[in-house]
Write a structure and sequence with these properties.
By secondary structure, the chain is of the alpha+beta class. A two-stranded antiparallel ribbon has the order 1-2. Strands 3-4 form a two-stranded parallel sheet.
């Protein structure tokens, strides 16, 4: 199955972002709700998503668990 990559939007001559942004607020502070987070597994899924061209993420500094995934991803 081939997934179409999203269109890009040029912000500057050196920076283009995906027109589709991915927010990770859904996983923010999961551990506070008693939900376990598998950061390695989440980072693997995120990497495959980014390899498909969906590589623009909304990462606020108060997203908690999302930041854990970010450290495993990068």
């Amino acid at each position: 199955m081939t997934i179409a990559t999203p269109d890009r939007f040029r912000l500057t001559s050196e920076l283009a972002i995906s027109r589709i942004l991915t927010g990770l607020w859904q996983v923010a502070d999961m551990e506070r709700r008693g939900t376990d987070l598998a950061p390695d597994k989440a980072a693997d899924h995120l990497a495959r998503y980014a390899e498909s061209g969906f590589d623009t993420f909304d990462m606020a500094d108060h997203y908690g668990s999302a930041e854990i995934i970010q450290w495993h991803f990068f």
